[in-house]
Amino acid sequence: MSPLLRWMGRIAMALGVLIMAAGLLMALLTYAEMIQGALADPLAESAAGDAEPERAAADRMLQWAIVGGSGLPLSIVGFIIARIARKNARRRKMIG
Questions:
Q1: Distance CA 59, CA 7 (A)
Q2: At residue 36, does pLDDT exceed 80?
Q3: Rounded distance between C-alpha atoms, residue 27 and residue 63, angstroms
Q4: Do the Cβ atoms of 12 and 74 come closer than 8 Å?
Q5: What is the pTM of this model?
Q6: What single-letter DSSP state applies at residue 50?
Q7: Can you give the pLDDT at residue 40?
Q8: What is the model's pLDDT at position 92?
Q9: Percent of the chain beyond pLDDT 70?
Q10: Within 10 Å of residue 56's Cβ, how many Cβ atoms?
Q11: Do 31 and 57 form a contact (C-beta atoms < 8 A)?
């Protein structure tokens, strides 16, 4: 049971890290789009009709940060499961 539990922990931890990385990457891409738009139109003449494009970009960045943050508990739980499985394996090795 211990190797299975250890692999389940590693998979959960890896999945959590992937979710966090995806959220961070998408937030950074949204930031890069905002910067690119500012460099393409420094005076924001084309955004005269838009209601603050920076506000919309900030909202999208926050949404992606929340998505990335949702991977943290999964990663922590996976780490704890893998750690418990490793301790149990060591204990069984010492006993038997």
A1: 37
A2: yes
A3: 8
A4: yes
A5: 0.79
A6: S
A7: 81
A8: 87
A9: 90
A10: 13
A11: yes
Nearby residues of 56 by Cβ (< 8 Å), 6 or more positions away: 50
Q: Mark 9-28 as b/e (b = at least 16 C-beta within 10 Å).
A: beebbeebbebbeebbebbe
- The token duo for 68 is 């990335």
8 A C-beta contact, residue 42 and residue 8: no
94 token code pair:
């010492």
**Span between the terminal Cα atoms of the chain, in Å:** 16
Burial 30-53 (b: 16+ CB within 10 A, else e): beeebeebeeeeeeeeeeeeeeeb
| Closest by Cα among 87, 81, 84 to 10 | 81
- The CA angle 28-66-63, to the nearest 5 degrees, is 65
User: Mean per-residue pLDDT for 75-90?
Assistant: 93
Q: Which two tokens stand for residue 48?
A: 């005269």
